[in-house]
């Protein structure tokens, strides 16, 4: 075999070897690429699954089940509702809340700032409404409270600016501080005979509130309880022993006040800035003029 032929055969062998090596490298590169793609796909699937779990429109919290269907949040089961529940992350889609019989309490911050919520039905099985339960639900217009609720917590309906009416059942014994503060469209309220105390600022800044009926078991009306409302007349029953500081301050159209118990303690500035108020009846005695409570001394 001559030298030229041998050289050519050597070159061919080298080319085959190099081609094989290149093919092997290309195959390895493709394999790594496919593995990387699989990893990315699996990771995306994992993130999607996490997202679905996080944004699920149904679930279980403690003993209670919840689901959202066409804007209605339904809560069912037996027992107390926990505080700060997962459905609050769906604040932009929940328009109605239905709580089924069996739920025994509404937790703190339970429905806080559900900005689309317009109506709530609270069943007879519920005995308490927690602090800030419906805080700042700005579109809430209608609330039905079952007749087993005994307490309405501090700030429970604070900032529900479109709430026009609420019926407080005859089971409620206490209305917490700031419970209905800034409910600017609330026009009338009846405090049932079961209630013994009205908290500080409970109905403050309810600027359209013109009519208030106070039940005959209330013993104390808190500081600024009806501060800057628009009440026209009010009758304070014999059961009331104390009216807090500035309780009715700023009711510019208040023209009639009747306090049945002559021994009721009046806080400072209780009735000041009632521009048309000229006389107050205390224990059947008509008084005129003004002192630092907004009415003359009873003596």
Please summarize what this structure is.
By secondary structure, the chain is of the alpha/beta class. The protein contains one helix and 22 strands.
Helical amount: 10-25%
Measured between the Cα atoms of the first and last residue, the distance is: 141 Å
**Biggest beta sheet summary:** 9 strands, parallel
In percent terms, what proportion of residues is strand? 15-25%
The total strand number stands at 22
Radius of gyration: 35 Å
Mean pLDDT level:
86
Which structural class matches the secondary elements?
alpha/beta
Order of helices and strands: HEEEEEEEEEEEEEEEEEEEEEE
Q: Helical segment tally? A: 1
The largest beta-sheet arranges its strands as: 4-6-8-10-12-14-16-18-20
Summarize this structure as a short list of keywords or feature phrases.
nine-stranded parallel β-sheet, seven-stranded mixed β-sheet, 1 helix, 22 strands, alpha/beta, 299 residues
């Amino acid at each position: 075999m001559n030298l030229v032929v041998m050289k050519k055969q050597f070159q061919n062998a080298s080319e085959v070897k190099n081609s094989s090596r290149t093919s092997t490298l290309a195959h390895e590169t493709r394999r790594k690429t496919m593995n990387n793609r699989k990893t990315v796909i699996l990771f995306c699937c994992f993130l999607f699954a996490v997202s679905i779990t996080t944004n699920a429109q149904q679930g279980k919290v403690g003993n209670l089940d919840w689901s959202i269907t066409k804007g209605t949040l339904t809560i069912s089961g037996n027992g107390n509702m926990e505080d700060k529940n997962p459905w609050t992350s769906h604040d932009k889609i929940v328009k109605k809340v239905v709580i089924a019989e069996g739920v025994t309490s509404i937790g703190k911050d339970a429905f806080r700032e559900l900005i689309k919520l317009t109506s709530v039905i609270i069943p007879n099985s519920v005995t308490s409404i927690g602090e800030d339960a419906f805080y700042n639900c700005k579109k809430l217009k209608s609330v039905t409270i079952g007749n087993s609720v005994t307490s309405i917590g501090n700030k429970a309906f604070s900032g529900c600016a479109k709430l026009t009416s609420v019926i407080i059942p005859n089971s409620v014994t206490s209305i917490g501080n700031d419970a209905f503060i800034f409910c600017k469209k609330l026009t009338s309220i009846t405090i049932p005979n079961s209630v013994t105390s009205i908290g500080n600022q409970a109905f403050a800044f309810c600027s359209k509130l013109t009519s208030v009926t106070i039940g005959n078991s209330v013993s104390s009306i808190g500081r600024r309880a009806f501060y800057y409302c628009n009440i026209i007349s009010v009758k304070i029953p014999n059961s009331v022993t104390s009216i807090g500081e500035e309780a009715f301050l700023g009711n510019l159209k208040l023209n009639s006040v009747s306090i049945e118990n002559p021994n009721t303690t009046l806080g400072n500035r209780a009735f000041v800035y009632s521009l048309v108020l000229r006389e107050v009846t205390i224990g059947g005695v008509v008084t005129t003029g003004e002192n630092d409570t907004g009415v003359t001394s009873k003596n």
